[in-house]
Amino acid sequence: MRKVVLGIDLGGTNIKAGIVDDGGEVLKHTVTPTQAEQGRDALLGRLRAIIEDFRAHSATAGLLPAGIGIGTAGYVEPLSGRVAYATPNLPGWTGLQLREALEQASSLPVAVANDAHAMAVGEAWLGAGRPYRDFICVTLGTGVGGSRVIDGRPDYGGSGFAGGFGHMVTAWGGQPCNCGLSGCYEQYASVTALLRLAAEAGLRREELPDGAKSIFDLASAGHSAASAVIERYAEYAAVGLISLAHVLNPQAIVLGGAVTAQGDALLGRIRRIVRERAMPVYRETPIVAAELGNAAGVAGAAKLAWDRLSGNNF
């Protein structure tokens, strides 16, 4: 009987889940609204329903459920699977023994990680990180997250919370951040920051019906203010990547998140700025786009489950 695992990517908007074999083939994929505002118990109920569907589908398809992996927003203790801290976007999630709860619900081994770590593992397994032994993955989305991957496995740091790249201070005394500091990288390199820069440049909300994408559309149509916004944003994004390259010396930087869908309109600028401003020995660090898109979190969570089953999880 073919063994499979359930990979779950728990985000603030949707819960993406996939039944995945040990070669990375997704045999079934589902998307469920997170509805986190309904509270912890309701969200755990949705996860239990996804697990029940996993079991039911496996039974009818002749598959053998072997384990579960989940990548969740928040700071996770990877050994215990406890969510040490989560923002109010996931009410009641702080302190949750997530691994224990899902193992009780499924009677299967469960691996739990922060969602950025899971995405990076997915890229290492099936995506842009495959050619590299040591790379960092940076996500430029609503916030900024990331992970360092070495030999296909995330570097969790001393307590499990490594990868908080978005809260690396790049402009001391700059924009206030919801972490309590000011000048954090995500206040300059996130999609939220890009939209703020556009507003500061005088671009009106009605000019941006598709959010960040509209800024790039305007720039490609010759809108000088939009072009200036993108150039400034690329500078801010590059500054953080230069710092990470200087400290970690990765073989490559894999960039994911919403804005990287714009391709060379953004990545080309970032690469140019890094080559111009990084110390000479770091200037040729490859900066590549993530390949798996929205599938990275599910793939990475599934790989974490397979690693736990093989004893190679941490």
From TrEMBL:
Taxonomic superkingdom: Bacteria
InterPro entries to which the protein is assigned, alphabetical: ATPase_NBD, ROK
Entry similarity comment: Belongs to the ROK (NagC/XylR) family.
Protein name in UniProt: ROK family protein
Top-level taxonomy: Bacteria, Bacillati, Bacillota, Bacilli, Bacillales
